[in-house]
Structure formats: structure tokens, C-alpha cells
């Protein structure tokens, strides 16, 4: 989050400079008017008021010399951020080796969806997570590592023409199930269809068996830890690309 805050402070600084420059121009116009008024008074015979003209001229010189110089630009600030991000980017060690076997990762540049797939007997297991559909980001820096504290993801177990869908979260130490629904492969026909009970209201033994069911299919704390750093790394890479594209757009003629 620090780099976003640094960029926002930079943009705010540019806007502040522009506002200061506009304010100084207004002061300059007011001082010029005062000087003109004083000159007119002298011309009409009020030659006994030289102090007024002197003060007006002094104010005009003060405004002229104190007006800030606007040297920065949004394009140059964006370029600075791009260079900073690329220089300091390092892929987390937790994701360099790929996902826990036998999962395979699928992703595409510019797409915030990440999908891990595997087969389990006759079942097809998909793990889907979106960069844009995560809990409020809080970054873990206790051990010097950067990662999102909690990652949200969906697990689908497809068999035949139906899917058992789990909405999950993980902090890297455990996997929590928030909801379970049984749906057609094409999804529920309407939002009013029953999608399952409140998971926390299920019998504790039943909740435990659902967790064991997922664990047997590779949905473990180890996978949760990988997903935490995967989503962080994906967001960082997409942010760098966004900066570069916006900088190109702003800087183009």
C-alpha cells in the first residue's frame, strides 16, 4: 500500500502546486489593481500620498518573486513510480516454485482472475480467486514478508452436470469455509433459488467433515499460504502494468 500512498501524495502535491500558482496569480492581479489605483490618485493631485504607491509596488514585487515555479507533471510522476516499482519488485519466494502439486495455475496479463485446476478421480477441482474480490487489504510485515493477511477464493468440485461450490478464506494457517452450495454446472437459474444454509449454523461435526472433504482434495493451509502470496504478487504486477499504460497515455501527444 505504501507505493499507492506515495503516488497519491505526489499527485496531491501537483494539484497543490497548481492551486498555489492560481492563488498567486490572483494576488498578482489584486496587487496590480492596487498599484494602478495608487498611480491614478497621484495623477489627480494626491501627490502627498507616496507611501500608498510605495506599498502597492512593494506588494507587487513580493507576489511576483514568491510565486511557486511549477516544474513537475503527472507524466513525469507516473514515470518515476514505474521506475521505482520495477526497481524494487521481487517475486515472493512462496510463489516462485508454482502451486502445490498437482495443481496447475492459469492466468493472463490484464485479467484479475487466477485459476488453479487438478483432477481428483472423476472430479474436476477448480480454485478461483480474483484480485478485485478480496477482503480489505492488510499487509503482513511481521516477519519481513509481504503478503495479504487473508485471501478469499472459491473451490468448485465438478462431477457430472453439477458442482459443489465452496466459498473459502485462508490466512495461511488454516482454511475457513464460509458457504457451501450445490449448483448446476451452468450456475443457478436465478438469484432467488436456495443456495444452501448459513455454514456457521451447521452442526460442528458436519462443518468438520466438509473441511476434511476439501483437505482430501488438496485444499490445505499450504495451498492457502501459496494463494496469499500469489494474489499479492498478481496485484503488484498488474499495478506496474497499469502505471506504465497510464503514463504512456498521459505522455502521448
Can you give a write-up of this model?
InterPro entries: MAM33 (IPR003428), MAM33_sf (IPR036561). This is Mitochondrial glycoprotein. The protein is 48% helix and 19% strand. The two termini are 31 Å apart. It is an alpha+beta fold and 253 residues long. The protein has a six-stranded antiparallel sheet with strand order 1-2-3-4-5-6. Strand 1 (104-106) and strand 2 (113-120) form a beta hairpin. Helix 1 runs antiparallel to helix 2. It has a domain at 1-9 and 74-135 and 146-251: Mitochondrial Matrix Protein, Chain A, CATH 3.10.280.10. It has six helices and six strands; from the N terminus they run H-H-H-H-E-E-E-E-E-E-H-H. It has helices at residues 2-43, 50-66, 74-88, 93-96, 204-216, 221-251; strands at 104-106, 113-120, 123-130, 151-159, 162-170, 175-184.
Could you say what the CATH architecture of the domain at 1-9 and 74-135 and 146-251 is? Roll
DSSP helical segment count: 6
Structural shape: elongated
End-to-end distance: 31 Å
User: What gyration radius follows from the Cα positions, in whole Å?
Assistant: 31 Å
Instruction: Characterize the biggest β-sheet.
Output: 6 strands, antiparallel
Q: What share of residues is helical?
A: 40-55%
Range of strand content: 15-25%
The average pLDDT value, as a whole number, equals 79
Class by alpha and beta content: alpha+beta
What is the C-level CATH assignment of the domain at 1-9 and 74-135 and 146-251?
Alpha Beta
Model regions low in confidence, pLDDT < 50 over at least 5 residues: 38-71
DSSP strand tally: 6
CATH superfamily of the domain at 1-9 and 74-135 and 146-251: Mitochondrial glycoprotein
Strand order of the largest sheet: 1-2-3-4-5-6
Q: State the oligomer.
A: single chain
CATH topology of the domain at 1-9 and 74-135 and 146-251: Mitochondrial Matrix Protein, Chain A
In sequence order, what are the helices and strands, one letter per element?
Answer: HHHHEEEEEEHH
InterPro entries: MAM33, MAM33_sf
GO cellular component, one term: mitochondrial matrix
Protein name: Mitochondrial glycoprotein
Pfam families: MAM33
Amino acid at each position: 500500500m505504501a507505493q499507492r500512498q506515495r503516488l497519491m501524495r505526489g499527485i496531491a502535491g501537483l494539484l497543490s502546486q497548481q492551486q498555489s500558482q492560481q492563488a498567486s496569480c490572483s494576488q498578482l492581479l489584486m496587487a496590480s489593481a492596487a498599484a494602478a489605483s495608487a498611480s491614478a490618485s497621484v495623477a489627480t493631485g494626491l501627490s502627498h500620498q507616496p507611501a500608498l504607491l510605495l506599498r502597492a509596488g512593494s506588494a507587487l514585487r513580493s507576489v511576483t518573486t514568491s510565486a511557486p515555479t511549477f516544474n513537475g507533471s503527472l507524466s513525469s510522476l507516473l514515470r518515476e513510480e514505474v521506475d521505482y516499482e520495477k526497481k524494487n519488485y521481487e517475486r515472493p519466494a512462496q510463489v516462485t516454485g508454482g502451486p502445490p502439486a498437482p495443481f496447475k495455475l492459469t492466468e493472463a496479463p490484464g485479467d484479475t482472475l487466477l485459476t488453479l485446476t487438478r483432477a481428483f478421480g472423476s472430479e474436476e477441482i477448480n480454485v478461483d480467486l480474483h484480485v478485485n474480490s478480496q477482503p480489505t487489504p492488510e499487509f503482513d510485515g511481521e516477519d519481513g514478508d509481504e503478503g495479504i493477511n487473508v485471501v478469499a477464493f472459491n473451490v468448485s468440485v465438478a462431477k457430472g452436470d453439477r458442482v459443489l461450490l465452496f466459498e473459502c478464506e485462508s490466512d495461511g494457517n488454516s482454511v475457513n469455509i464460509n458457504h457451501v452450495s450445490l449448483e448446476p454446472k451452468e450456475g443457478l437459474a436465478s438469484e432467488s433459488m436456495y443456495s444452501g444454509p448459513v455454514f456457521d449454523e451447521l452442526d460442528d461435526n458436519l462443518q468438520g467433515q466438509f473441511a476434511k472433504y476439501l483437505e482430501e482434495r488438496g485444499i490445505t493451509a499450504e495451498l492457502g499460504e501459496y494463494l496469499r502470496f500469489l494474489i499479492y504478487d498478481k496485484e503488484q504486477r498488474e499495478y506496474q502494468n497499469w502505471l506504465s499504460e497510464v503514463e504512456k497515455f498521459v505522455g502521448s501527444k
